[in-house]
Write a structure and sequence with these properties.
single chain; alpha/beta; Rossmann fold; 2 domains; seven-stranded parallel beta sheet; five-stranded parallel beta sheet; 15 strands; about 35% helix
Length: about 350
């Protein structure tokens, strides 16, 4: 029988190391070592071979990014970044994800001990989820070329449905997956794309900028009343639900609300998917990617009931097979695909027959 999750806690603040370690221990996680800088974190990982590392971003001698890169090279281990809630730290945190970190959790400000106490269940849950992620050893299948990938159609006769809308939902491990899917989608598909990634305020704007730079779509963070048409995408803003308010002539408008969290999260995938199903009368596709919890399952039901098509990421390529699993269990998912085939799967749902 497997023992408790084993963790290394790295933070340059003695107080934060103690608070985080206590929370994890109370949650049944065995903290096998603490580190006050990145160098100590790397050494602790090599010595103790933990299941997971909680990594502060800014530390002396070696910061969290360098330490993550070293860990991935020397002994690949799931890393959860603990980031302060600032724009600068948002940039650095995404860089850490590029170096191999699985996900991040924002450290509270103000009365740290009180806020950490409030967030302790979330922290324990995400540490356990991140610990289960395979890193470093997974061999990925070669990508199947996407028809029209990279924004230039490789098949001249490819034709897509008029005014298609795509709603993507994801959580733990999702940022890199969302980036990949959007970078694989050709602008010629003329999709209207709505992305709901469980991510705190202050990070979603940077996330949108990253996707914008990596895809053929015009991607921005959602604002209240924002409108998009074909070739454009909105990323739900942190701490706001994104509802589809209306849809006319191929353009949709969103409304941001701070209504109560749904599935314990805000933004919630269900809110965006359910309102899309209610409002959009053209081609609609719902996709659920990696993440913990059950957010998106009801949204998938609604999209399917409205005549839309639905896709879920498979277990083998999901960092955390929680949200996709719950979606599949509804019986309303049309296709379960590895991440490398998600974009092709989306295009298959909106492709129309071309007669010569």
């Amino acid at each position: 029988m497997a023992g408790p999750t084993r963790a290394v806690v790295a933070d340059d603040s003695h107080f934060m190391r103690s608070v985080i370690s206590d929370i994890l221990a109370e949650g049944g996680i065995d903290v096998v070592a603490q580190a006050k800088n990145g160098r100590e974190a790397v050494d602790a990982v090599v010595e103790h071979e933990p299941d997971v590392v909680t990594m502060d971003v800014e530390m002396p001698e070696m910061n969290g990014i360098e330490a993550t890169e070293r860990i991935m090279a020397e002994r690949p281990t799931p890393v959860l970044m603990l980031s302060a809630h600032t724009d600068e730290n948002a940039d650095v945190t995404f860089e850490a994800l590029d170096k191999g970190a699985v996900d991040f959790f924002t450290k509270p400000g103000g009365e740290v001990s009180m806020e950490m106490s409030r967030l302790k269940d979330q922290l324990v849950d995400i540490v356990v989820s991140v610990a289960s992620v395979e890193v470093g050893g997974r061999t990925r299948r070669p990508r199947r070329p996407t028809q029209g990938g990279g924004g230039a159609s490789t098949v001249e006769s490819a034709s897509y449905a008029t005014n298609p809308t795509l709603v993507i939902g994801s959580s733990t491990g999702g940022p890199k997956m969302v980036e990949q899917v959007l970078s694989d989608l050709p602008s010629s598909a003329d999709l209207r794309i709505l992305v709901v990634q469980h991510m705190p305020e202050g990070f979603t704007g940077r996330f949108a900028e990253r996707i914008d730079a990596r895809s053929g779509y015009d991607v921005r963070e959602a604002t209240d009343g924002a409108r998009i048409g074909g070739g454009e995408a909105l990323v739900a803003a942190g701490d706001y639900h994104m509802e589809i308010k209306n849809y006319r002539n191929g353009r949709l408008r969103v409304k941001l609300t701070q209504d109560e969290p749904v599935n314990s999260v805000r933004p919630a995938v269900d809110v965006t998917m359910e309102t899309a199903a209610d409002v959009i009368d053209d081609t609609l596709v719902g996709v659920i990617l990696t993440g913990m919890g059950e957010d998106g399952a009801d949204g998938i039901r609604r999209i399917k009931a409205a005549g839309g098509r639905t896709i879920a990421q498979d277990e083998a390529t999901s960092a955390v097979y929680g949200m996709p699993k719950r979606a599949v269990e509804t019986g309303c998912v049309d296709s379960v695909l590895p991440i490398d085939d998600i974009a092709s799967g989306i295009l298959d749902t909106i492709r129309t027959e071309v007669t010569s």
